[in-house]
Amino acid sequence: MIVTKIDYVAAHDGSGPLAIRLLKEMDFTRVWSPRKTLFFLDHAAPASRKELANEHKLIREFCRTSGAQFSDVGEGIIHQELVEKYVSPGNVIIGGDSHTCTSGALGAFATGVGSTDVSIAIVLGKTWLRVPETYKIVINGKFDDGVYPKDMILHIIGKLGADGAIYKSLEFTGENVKTMTMDSRFTLTNMAVETGAKAGLIESDEITEHYLRSMGRGKFCNDIKADVDAQYAQTFEFDASNLPPIVSLPHSVDNTKTIEEAEGIEVDQVFVGTCTNGRIEDLRIVARILKNRKVHPKVRLIVIPASRRIYLEALKEGIIETIVDSRGVVLSPGCGPCAGVHQGILGEGEVCVSTQNRNFKGRMGNPDAEIYLTSPATAAATALTGELSDPRDVI
Amino acid sequence: MHGRVWKFGDGISTDDIIPGRYFHLRGKLPELAKHVLEDVNPDFSVKVEKGDFVVAGSNFGQGSSREHAATTIRLMGVSAVLAKSFARIFYRNAVNVGLPVIMCNTDLIENGDELEIDLNGGMINNLSKKKKLKTKAIPRFMLRILEDGGLLRHIKKYGKFQMK
Q1: Which residue from A180, A243, A323, A354 puts its CA 20 to 30 A from A154's CA?
Q2: Which residues of chain B lie closer than 8 angstroms to A363, CB-CB?
Q3: What are the helix and strand counts (H, E) for chain B?
Q4: A339: which chain B residues are within 8 Å (Cβ-Cβ)?
Q5: Do A26 and B89 touch (CB under 8 A)?
Q6: Pair A327, A280 in one domain
Q7: Per the CB < 8 Å rule, is A55 touching B85?
Q8: Which residue of A has its CA nearest to B140?
Q9: pLDDT over 80 (residue B164)
Q10: Are A119 and A8 in a shared domain?
């Protein structure tokens, strides 16, 4: 057990209001570093009802009086905002959201905590942690066309199990990861928590540096590598070649099947977005599949870019036009229906194919609905046919 | 601690404990608590009594970091959660809000059993089954946070993390 200094503490409109209320209740008035205290509106942004508008108001007022950093509605999802604007290799970050582990793809130690931890970090700039053992996840080989890192991470979770790495860290490496884009790396580390892991880590390299440079933060690229003699609790090897598209069936992320086993299930809604798969690379794949085609009349397709930056990029590349032209609905950057609050809640008995990271019962606002998790390509192919479909047939 | 058992299965998620559709109630914790675990057992929030125990299988509290999950279980008067394993964020949230979490083999504990638990001694006495069970010790630092009534009170008291 250690107490460590942190580089950033982050929270959103789900975890932030409780943290702020706890600080007020306990009469903690000091803010350790306003520059490193970050608040984001993404879960219900813009607010869908007065109670949530009041929560937003609480965050706005706290940021105004304390000087903490504030990211308003439409700016983006906390984890995407973190990697685009703040995180550098070697940082220690805690965030009031379980998918804080996304930032680990930049060679940072980033982990999810609750509102009390957030509030104490705001006051002290420190947190308590148990140093985790590490599982080494080696991914070799090349993906076939139509198969993506999302399929691989679902496959890995299926093999390890939803509690297979509780209290551990996952380090992703191997020739496949070393040539992978940052967008794809974020998809891997984002879902580390779905095995129970505390963090998902990837060494920093030229790809990390290039990404940070493109975000205007190239000088912050520290070289973070695993020690040559690092001890791993266990090593798991995976081969990307010949991996088929993978689907997580309801109601558990580790309930994985190959597309062949799941094909043909009828679908009411398709959702592309979230901190897992709402990045430009994902939207490009979707647009490529939808180009000059129409979404099946019985399906509604919802697409949400993960940040304003991505939204603008997608606009410039004509991606948004392609999606809207194919009868898709594009909403402003944020978490959308993934947290079950708004923008695509499911009806009784309805089925949704989503690129998000969780399919727990009730996740999208209705315990009597079913969620299937896939890659953006599988989601797009499914939107065209109205049933779970193999993207390799349409790509 | 003394109370009756409410038994749950494996992989209870924070969406099971506090569903996302009640997001707007997060600002009113006593209101939110009325819905705790309702999708898994609708009787729980109505009939749970002060002192009762939540007992589950593996990976209790998996998923989201919402601390509201641990807080509302505590607000319902539950004196401790027992499980074979816990999702790590739920575990630290529980400690931070002063809700004891105990790792042990829960297979032999059934719904409605009457338990007596000595947290410091690490012993569970199942009065219904007339059986005693050792628990995994709670690390000393966490025990102190629990005794202080949660992390905020701990920090208020010492002005820092009191590790030793």
Answers
A1: A323
A2: 15, 20
A3: 7, 7
A4: 20, 23, 64
A5: no
A6: yes
A7: no
A8: A1
A9: no
A10: yes
* Angstroms from B30 CA to nearest CA on chain A: 13
- Nearest CA distance, A265 vs chain B (angstrom): 24
CA distance A245 to A339: 25
Per the structure, the count of domains in chain A is 3
Task: Walk me through the domains of chain B, giving residue ranges and CATH numbers.
Answer: 2-136 (3.20.19.10)
Q: Are A190 and A101 in contact (CB under 8 A)?
A: yes
* Gap from B23 CA to chain A (nearest CA, Å): 6
How many angstroms separate the CA atoms of A249 and A262, rounded? 8
CB–CB of A362 and B16 under 8 A? yes
Last residue of a domain, one of A113, A129, A145: A129
Predicted complex ipTM:
0.97
Q: B23, A196: Cβ pair inside 8 Å?
A: no
* Claim to verify: residue A125 and residue A88 sit in the same structural domain: yes
Q: Looking at the predicted structure, is the pLDDT value of residue B19 above 80?
A: yes
- Bridge-based pairing of strands B123-126 and B131-134 is antiparallel
Domain around A205 = 134-239
Strand order in the sheet with B80-83: B101-103, B80-83, B53-55, B2-7, B114-118, B123-126, B131-134
CA separation for the pair A294, A288 (Å, rounded): 12
Phi, psi of A123, deg, nearest 5: -80, -45
Interface of chain B toward chain A, CB-CB under 8 angstroms: 11, 13, 15-16, 19-21, 23-28, 39, 58-59, 62-68, 70-71, 85-89, 92-93, 96-97, 139, 141, 150-153, 155-156, 160-161, 163
| Six-digit token string for A53 | 């508008």
Sign of CA dihedral A249, A361, A161, A114: positive
The SS3 call for residue A12 is strand
Q: For chain B, state the CA radius of gyration.
A: 15
Stretches in chain A below the pLDDT threshold 50? none
The closest of B59, B65, B8 to B38, measured between CA atoms, is: B8
User: pLDDT tens digits, residue range A27-82?
Assistant: 999 999 999 999 999 999 999 999 999 999 999 999 999 999 999 999 999 999 99
Query: What is the spatial distance between Cα B146 and Cα B117, in angstroms, rounded to a whole number?
Result: 15
Domain co-membership, A121 together with A70: yes
- Nearest chain B Cα to A47, which residue? B24
